[in-house]
What does this fold into?
Amino acid sequence: MKKALIIATIGGFLPVSEINNAILLQELGFEVHYAANMTNRIYEFEEQELIDKGIKLHHVEFSKNPFDMIKLAKCIKNVKKIIEDEQIQVVHCHTPVAGVAGRIAAHFSKIVFSNNRNDQIKTKVSKKCRPYVIYTAHGFHFYKGAPVFNWICYYPVEYLLSAWTDCLITINQEDEKRAKKMRCKRCVKIPGVGIDLNRFSPVKNTQQIRSESKDREWIQQKKTNLENMEIEKFHIISVGELNKNKNHRIVIEAMALLKDKTITYEIYGNGNGKHQLETYIRFSGLESQVHLRGFDMEIEKQLQQADCCIFPSFREGLGLAALEAMACKVPLIVSDNRGVREFAEHNKNCIVCNPNNAKEFAQAIYRIKTDKAFADRLTVHAYETVQRFSIEESTKVMRMVYEKL
It folds into this structure.
């Protein structure tokens, strides 16, 4: 049987971002294996759900620190063992550290390929060679305007490893142009991992959300919150890991500038920057308005109830959470970076701000809060934009990639 291995640094990456590719590989006759650090819980997920889908799991102690050479060497050894023990024919890597470990391991792995249609029969035409390697770059760390450190540390590694990459997949135009100048055999651009437009969709009112929900505890909690919420409350939401790059702090600064007690701000995500954000929220005196909610498996329900979504990252490969907000017809504010430039049109489908300028974010929030006609126009154009980033569009391209293996 044909076997494919998907590799990512953190365990929740596949169920959150790549489950469609896993299903597509299965449809094409592959047994799918998944190697990741299953103890890293930035994204919550249930291992049993993946097992029930027929995915074979392998725990590898990946670290997000790319400079931990000892741990990286151990990971390369472990991935190589998985490839050779399972006779993996296709290795699809995601995220930077796993991308390095996976490609090095695959290059030095030897598996048996046979021209015979019956893989169980070894013939004289069988030969040993390495698996086919795909790497999806969800946003290179080196880009126009990136720190010099990023170019010195990350670019040479990616350039060298591109020679061991059969297919390099990118998700934005800037990365695509740069990838074509590398040494990989093939470059493909996809419209992101794909938005499920059935799951992320606009709703007419919160009553519809509650009536369709199967989570009774969630329904009761939201019912209580809605009863206690003043009519004039303006609810902002951000979705993303709690770290420096996601730049949630700039929105808190904007909230402090506005001094508007009717505005609430909820941040959904986990990460090692939680303590710093909590400290800054207290320092700003916004404990009653700004809340860290953690990771939410049903984030579409939160988006559907929001008055505004803010996506303030310094760096993004594309911007999945922003596209999900667009699909839910939530007025969107984004920071200017190479990822959101794939879909953001200032004052047409969103408001684009300087990621370092809290005043611009404050002005954008005020405009969306006070100008409903303008906010509605943004959502109409945003909903039109997001159609080209659907799961269906992404799957079309990925199917062509996998069928050419």
Summary: The first strand starts at residue 2 and ends at 10. Confidence is low (pLDDT under 50) at residues 120-125, 205-220.
